[in-house]
Amino acid sequence: QSVLTQPPSVSAAPGQKVTLSCSGRNSNIGFNYVSWYQQIPGTAPKLLIYANDQLSSGIPDRFSGSKSGTSATLAITGLQTGDEAEYFCATWDNSLSGGVFGGGTKVTVL
Amino acid sequence: QVQLQESGPGLVKSSETLSLTCTVSGFSITTAYYWGWIRQSPGKGLEWIASKYYTGSTNYNPSLKNRATISMDTSKNQISLELTSVTAADAATYYCARGGDNYYFSMDVWGNGSTVTVSS
Fold it and tell me: I need a surface site. Which of A27, A52, A94, B104 has the fewest CB within 10 A?
């Protein structure tokens, strides 16, 4: 059971938009920055978004992040087959005094 | 560009100590970043293990119950991880990454990972 809750999977057709949610608590998302990672099977995670909504270097602006209260969202517009991957959210947890990740959301392009 | 490369034994016996090294090229680990270790068990999510700043500030995942030690060799530009008393639950791919402080907690450069199997 992960500290941050993500839906296991989402799917959409090419060109569509998907939104991935990440739910936490005041001790983590509520008071700290959220980052998002993309992991294609067999490869290392790649940073997409840091500080809630800042795009990492080289990441297309089809990806965007936001945060409200104790939840964060990653949006992917103009979905492409190359976006098929697992997506993880992460933040610091003040109660645990450590970093925490969500369980991941698998994105399938139909 | 910045590159991270993990190295380790691949196979560790249960109850023994796992030792991994991350060699950083293209960037000095004494520049203003934390450096950390994250692992991923087969088919599972990511688990943060520890992060360290070159001046000494260190954070550990409390769930590892003091079994983990992160260290740096600035002369070799390397970060190391030791995990004692390993069990089957420690079998995973171990990644080193740049970042992981307790403010942004974002890791912008990752190694390719080192797979560790635990034998009985």
Answer: A94
Query: Residues A73-98: pLDDT tens digits?
Result: 999 999 999 999 999 999 999 999 99
CB contact under 8 A, A37 and B108: no
Q: Is the Cβ–Cβ distance between B15 and B118 less than 8 Å?
A: no
Residues of B with CB under 8 A from a CB of A: 36, 38, 45-48, 51, 59-63, 95, 99-100, 102-108, 110-113
Query: In angstroms, rounded to a whole number, what is the distance separating the alpha carbons of residues B95 and B37?
Result: 6
Angle at alpha carbon of residue B82, lines to B81 and B84, rounded to 5°: 150
In the beta sheet, which residues pair with residue A85? A107
Q: b/e for B86-103, b at 16 or more Cβ within 10 A?
A: beeebbbbbbbbbbbbbe
Would you say the C-alpha torsion B114, B95, A42, A97 has a positive or negative sign? Answer: positive
Task: Pick left, alpha or beta for residue B35 (phi over 0 → left; psi -120 to 50 → alpha; otherwise beta).
Answer: beta
What is the DSSP code string of A19-41?
EEEEE--IIIIITS-EEEEEE-T
Interstrand relation of A18-23 and A71-76 (parallel, antiparallel or unpaired): antiparallel
What is the phi/psi pair of residue A9, to 5°? -155, 155
